[in-house]
Amino acid sequence: QSIGSLDAKFDQSIGSLDAKLDQSIASLDAKLDQRITRLDVKVDERITRLEAKVDQGFTCLDEKMSRHFLWILGVQIAVLISVIGALVGT
């Protein structure tokens, strides 16, 4: 009977340890999910900031290219007018 009693106590202890282990695993899983969510939010914020910087860079580049294009076009028109003027003047 004492072996049966010890066996029952052992089973009870194992059951208690299993319950505590399951509780710890659930708690760690919840904490891990929270951290992953926070990291996802931080990564999304950084990506948004980087996208804004890239968009701003492209906008600035577009403005510069537009000015350079107009300047080059103006120079070509001036050269064309001077060539036509030279041909007409001769």
Task: Describe the structure in your own words.
The protein has one helix at 2-89. With 90 residues, it is an all-alpha fold.
Structural descriptors:
0% strand, rod-shaped, mainly alpha, 90 residues
Provide a quick synopsis of the model.
The protein is mainly α and 90 residues long.
Helix-strand layout with pairing:
Elements: H1 2-89
Strand content of the residues, in percent? Answer: under 5%
Structural class: mainly alpha
- From N to C, what is the helix and strand string? H
Distance between the termini: 130 Å
Point out poorly predicted stretches.
none
**What is Rg?**
38 Å
Strand segment count: 0
Biggest pleated-sheet summary: none
Calculate the mean pLDDT score and round it: 92
Helix fraction by DSSP (H/I, runs of at least 4): over 70%
The outline comes out as rod-shaped
Q: Treating each run of at least 4 consecutive H or I residues as one helix, how many helices? A: 1
